[in-house]
Automatic annotation (TrEMBL):
Domain of life of the source: Eukaryota
InterPro entries with a match to the protein in the record: TMEM14, TMEM14_sf
Name the UniProt record assigns to this protein: Transmembrane protein 14C
Protein's UniProt keywords contain Transmembrane helix: yes
Record organism: Coptis chinensis
Cellular location(s): Membrane
Length: 84
């Protein structure tokens, strides 16, 4: 599994825990700690997900370009390599 599969849900869990701690006990430390760390984890997960998507697009273009060079067929390898 990839890291963003864990960081985004765990960040949401921390964020909600900070809000719940503040709502139940009025703890600003819980709100700051939970929301701050949760936001940082969510941001890291989203950045990692975007980098993963870009890498997948590059790999797909390279693979389809190689397939087009081997087979010289336009469908589907040439079209997919040309789209990216």
């Amino acid at each position: 599994m990839h890291d963003f599969c864990f960081t985004i849900p765990y960040g949401l869990l921390l964020l909600s825990g900070g809000v719940i701690g503040y709502a139940k006990k009025g703890s600003t430390a819980s709100l700051a700690g939970g929301c701050g760390n949760g936001f940082i984890l969510i941001l890291a997960g989203v950045l990692s997900l975007n980098a993963f998507k870009k890498l997948c697009a590059v790999v797909l273009t390279w693979v389809m370009g190689q397939r087009y060079l081997q087979t010289s067929k336009i469908m589907p390898a040439g079209v997919v390599a040309g789209i990216r």
